[in-house]
Amino acid sequence: VQLVETGGDSVQPGGSLRLSCVASGFTFSNYLMSWYREAPGKKRELVASIGNAGAVLYLQDSVKGRFTVSRVNAKNTLYLQMNSLKPEDTAVYYCYVPSLGSWGQGTQVTVSS
Questions:
Q1: Which long-range contacts (CB under 8 A, 24 or more apart) does 46-52 make?
Q2: From 97's CA, which of 2, 10, 31, 72 has a CA 20 to 30 Å away?
Q3: CB 71, CB 50: distance < 8 Å
Q4: DSSP string for residues in the chain
Q5: pLDDT for 18-39, tens place per residue?
Q6: Sign of CA dihedral 110, 47, 67, 73
């Protein structure tokens, strides 16, 4: 199992980013996928989960209306579209397959003026 996140960057408040997670080594379309984030000094927390067919199963209250989770099974890719970014969104964002217990290496998102 390999999960490779990309798309992290440093942006100003109000900016947007799209994170991608490309999966390999398992049948991506069969699995629920999640995005987690870990801010400095804080526990890793669940941001969003999406079912294998694309139904959004969970979106953290603090990101509702700003973040969108999606997937393209034909591309083995999971996405997190992040709009109206706030400084409190600063964290390392991880892709995760709950039923396999597999994590990506993470991608850094920094929101600062």
A1: 47/80, 47/93, 48/80, 49/98, 50/78
A2: 10
A3: yes
A4: -EEEEE---EE-TT--EEEEEEEESS-GGGS-EEEEEE-TTS--EEEEEE-TTS-EEEE-GGGTTTEEEEEEGGGTEEEEEE-S--GGG-EEEEEEETTTTEE---EEEEE--
A5: 999 999 999 999 999 999 999 9
A6: positive
Residue 62 dihedral angles phi and psi, to the nearest 5°: -70, -15
Mean pLDDT of 89-111: 98
Q: How far is CA 8 from CA 29, 46, 65, in A?
A: 24, 17, 20
Residue carrying structure tokens 């398992």: 26
Alpha-carbon gap, residue 101 to 84, rounded angstroms: 31
Q: Return d(Cα 91, Cα 2) in angstroms, integer.
A: 21
Q: What is the pLDDT of residue 45?
A: 98
Q: In percent, how much of the chain has pLDDT > 90?
A: 100
**What pLDDT, on a 0 to 100 scale, did the predictor assign at position 103?**
98
